[in-house]
Amino acid sequence: MVYNIIVNAARTGEKQIKLAESVFESAGRKYRTFRTDHKGHATEIAEQISSAGEECAVVVMGGDGTLHEVINGIRDFEKCSLGLIPSGTGNDFAEAAHIPADIKKAAQIIAFRAPVNIDYIELENGLKSINAVGMGIDVDVLKRAYEKGGGKGKYLSSLIYCLKHFKSYNFTVEYDGKSEKHYGLIAALGNGRQIGGGIKICPDAKIDDGYMDLLMVDYVSRFKIIFAFLKLMLGKINSIKEVTAVRVKRAKFTTEKPCSIQAEGEIYDGMQLDAHIVEKGLKFFLPRNSDTVRD
């Protein structure tokens, strides 16, 4: 089996790449390294690799954005295993999967261990999300953060700004045979636990339990915004009464006007948030003794 390393070259240095390659060499693994040079390139590479019909491993060396591109490029999940060496500005899925930030240790997990099956989220239009997908204030936060140059610090400052200025809007959600109307700040579906480089929006989510964690935050008064923000940073957002947090297999959101959604920080305009969990649908390299994996 060939290990195909797809590197976000804009965020990963040559020393880091060489270090990862040395691990595969010492393990006696055949590998190829591909460097991305434009947005969407990782998707193109993953599609080319996975279309060959041969068993292979696709190794992402980057952050959540690169991981998102790759998972949406893989054409055969039966024959392709996926691994992650975190080296991006946002490594939120790595936290959920307990993958270390150390390049060598992360590469060793892939080179010396067998993959296990985990879940991923799929929208009805075919878009896939491995970590989290949502709409509402998180999209506005991302847009503002990108305008300011991106990065965790920019995300936090943008979040604080948007909490003060974002206007809630009406939406209807259908899940588990229920239909509810909300006037909310955010609606998110999590396979992983956090977004934005550490914002624990779905603190109880697991990547292999067969469910998405659905989080909805209804209108919060200006007076309570600071309190809600502190709860969010501490991973205790579920304790606020304006929050609905449930585990679901499928959820569909309908808004009065077309809106934008985000998946792993990638923004999609005019797309409906209508998604389901694909249970155990992805083979992924995880650390030994990870409490993510259920026996």
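(the above was protein one; protein two follows)
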Amino acid sequence: MADDKKIVVENEDGDSAELNANLASSPEEINAENNDLNLLADLEKVKTELAAKNDRLLRLQADFDNFRKRAAKDKSELGASIEQNFLTDLLPVVDNFTRALEHSEISDAETLRKGITMIWNELVKALNKHGLEAIDTENQKFDPHYHQSVSNVKDETKEDGMIAAELQRGYMAHGKVIRASMVQVVNND
């Protein structure tokens, strides 16, 4: 059991104050008080560590949000840049079509045909530059990953499953099919 004792403290000016002191009467009580103090110190240490980790977590979340916003902005800007480059590559085709239309009244059929062929080649070149490629169907076996069968035909000169005719050209961009070729497939059964 602890005894309450009054302690008087005086300073140099002669002022004094009384304090109530709780003095332990046994070593067990002293150890219990020390344990309580150690537990309180440990609790304060854990609270401090938790606050620091919470602060770090909040900073990481803010950094991640900023990164996500920056990545979305960069992606948007990249898409706009790619689109501008693509359109810039198509402008010569537009210019040539404009010139062809302006001069179509005075041109003969062969000159017009040559002009349209030149424009076509320029358009294909611009599209190929941006990764577009035609899907080959000539002398090819039907592949559902690249071709869409719209009908079957009999052709004794070709084996079953071969492509007999291409009805609409298919295209790939950067190795991915963006439109399958519409084809007729040989079926001699």
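Reviewer note on protein two: The CA atoms of residues 114 and 120 lie 10 Å apart.
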